[in-house]
Every structure is written in structure tokens, then in C-alpha cells.
Amino acid sequence: MIRLAIISPCYNEEAVLEWSAARLTGLLGELAQKGKVTPDSFVLYVNDGSTDHTWQLIRQLHGTHPQVKGVNLARNTGHQNAIMAGMMTAREWCDGLITIDADLQDDLSAIEAMVDAYADGYDVVYGVKVSRQADPRLKRLSAKAFYKLQQRMGIEAVYNHADFRFLSRRVLGQLARYGERNLYLRGIIPQLGFPSTTVDDVISPRTAGHSKYTLRRMLSLALDGITSFSVKPIYGILYMGAIFLCISVLIGVYVVHALITGTAEHGWASLMLSIWFVGGIILLSVGGVGLYIGKIYKEVKHRPLYSVEDILGDEKHARS
Ligand code: UDP
Ligand code: MG
Q1: Same domain, 96 and 206
Q2: Which residue owns the Cα nearest ligand 1 atom 23?
Q3: Are 308 and 281 contained in the same domain?
Q4: Cα 289 from Cα 231, distance rounded (Å)
């Protein structure tokens, strides 16, 4: 049996909190009755610097439901950081945890499936959206384009998976070694490399409150996702430089031809040639400098070199 924590980040979620807490604690009760999780499993709300009464509500709920815990962040730090704060707080108190948005748009029946997958030996279980009908059209389209772009950039992210997932305690221990500022969990977790699987997640519409992910926030997350994991854009500059140089060779041939046949204006040949040649050299040099910056960027992240899955003879590291 597993002691399960459910981590839920909240930013101005007073409209959904009570409803969410009732559903989540109810679910934990059911799972405990079925003998799948321990009775002291809990829900941990992370208040991400809300400006409404979210934290007062969490405190009230903690008073009435012993299974509700809370972390109060001193200011708004964003969805990814709030999840990280919750996971790092709960990791010593549980055998595994599930992160889910406070609005419970994700499929609650997937939680039991995640617990079952853990029992089957998986350390990471991704909730994968099978139907996004409830999402607005713009969100669906932009999400799709973004997943495709990630793939092209060579980022190992799970298609149609957001931040609804299960992580076991040993994965959390490994994750704790990542100290990066531009946190993009969807990129980091597949890199850790523990046994993983997926469960279906049917999204429902938000019941109350409104989405905190404005277009600007979505773009900024997408940009973080790509620039924190891929140096391919830098290679793009190098390739462009090479292409420009090739074009300058072709133009060189054309210019010589024009000179011989005498069809060129005076000064045109040298001007044309230098624009493409110098442009190519500049792009190549910028790309070259970029290669070094790419290395510096990898170094400063201080990402762990390896992740340990098992240690024979160390009780603390073994799965319960
Ligand atoms: N959230 C947060 N900090 C923020 C913005 C959002 O903790 O700065 C939380 C929010 O309360 C919710 C989750 O992140 O639990 C996802 O946000 P939302 O449901 O508004 O996004 P959407 O589902 O529309 O993408
Ligand atoms: Mg939502």
C-alpha cells in the first residue's frame, strides 16, 4: 500500500477549492477503503501567492479535513514553480504523489489507474489527454503546434501530456537534484528515465473561476520549454550562414558571367557579391559563438550527470 499525496497548485482558486477538496478527499477515502492507499494519504494545496481568499480557505479546510494540508508561497511564482514547491514539500511524507490542477479539469478516475500502475512497478505515470473537446479551439490548436515543434527540436516530451502525473519517491529524490531556474517539468521528467507508462485523461471544462493561462503565459511557457532544452535554434544560425555562403558562390558565378558578357551595371557586381558573402560570414561567426554559448548554457544548468534507479543494499533507496 502506498502513502499517496495529491499536489494541487492554486492561484486565485477560491471558487473551486471547497468542491475540489471534497472530491479529492472523497477519492482518497475510496482508495483507502479498497486498500490501495494508506488512510493517512493526503491532499496538499500550494497557494501560489493568491490575491483572493484561497489561503484562508485552505486553512479552513485543513481545520475540518485532517487530510488537507497546505503550503503558502510568499508571492506568485507561476504554475511550474508552485508544483515544484509542493512536490519538494511532500516528498519526505509520501511514497508517491500526483500533481493535478486545482480546477480538476483532469480525469479523476485516472488517479486510481496511476496508483495501480505504481503497484505494477512504474515510477512515472503520465496522464495523457485523449480528448481535448472541452478545451477552447485556440488552445487545442496552439497546443498541437507546440508539441510538434518540441518534437522537431529534439525535446523528449510526452505528446498531449501536461502536468497531471504520478511520481514515485525515488523519482522525486532525483528531481530534487535539479536546481534550474527556468523550470519545465514536462521536459525534465522524461530525461530522468525511470520506468514509465501513461493513462488516459479525459479533460472536462472548468467548473468555476477562469483560466490563469493567458496567451502570454502560454507563449512564455512554450519559449521556456524550447530554450531550456534545445540548442537547435543556434544550429539554425550556423546552417543559415552556410546557405548564405553557398548562395554567394552561385551569385559569384552569375556575376562573372555578367562581367564577361558586359551586361552588368558598374559597381553592381562587387556590391551583390559582398552582401551575400559578408552576410554569410557574419551568420557563420554568430553561429560559431553560439556553439560556445550553447555549451556554457548546458554547464550553468548543473544538471545531474546520471539518475540512479536501484541500489542493492541501501534500504532507503528501495521501493516500499
Ligand atoms: N496556477 C498557479 N500559479 C499561476 C497560474 C496558475 O499555481 O501563476 C495554477 C492554477 O491555480 C491551476 C493550474 O495552475 O490550478 C492551471 O491553471 P489553469 O487551470 O488556469 O490553466 P488552464 O487549465 O486553463 O491551462
Ligand atoms: Mg485548468
Answers
A1: yes
A2: 211
A3: no
A4: 13
pLDDT value, residue 316: 64
Residues 162 and 247 in one domain: no
Give the Å distance between the CA of 12 and the centre of ligand 1: 9
The residue among 237, 219, 240, 251 whose CA lies nearest residue 289 is 237
In a domain, 63, yes or no: yes
Q: Are residues 50 and 142 in the same domain?
A: yes
Q: Which domain holds residue 292?
A: 232-301
Q: What are the φ/ψ torsions at residue 10 (nearest 5 degrees)? A: -130, 125
* Model confidence pLDDT, tens digit, residues 134-151: 778 888 888 888 888 888
Instruction: Determine the pLDDT at residue 72.
Output: 97
- What gap in Å lies between CA 251 and CA 51, rounded to an integer? 62
pTM (two decimals) = 0.86
CB-ligand 1 contact for 36 (6 Å cutoff):
no
Check whether residue 257 and residue 162 sit in a common domain.
no
Ligand 2: centre distance to CA 129 (Å) = 13
- As a whole number of angstroms, the distance between CA 260 and CA 256 comes to 6
pLDDT tens-digit profile of 221-234? Answer: 888 889 888 989 99
Residues measured by CB to lie within 5 Å of ligand 2, the ion:
101, 103, 105
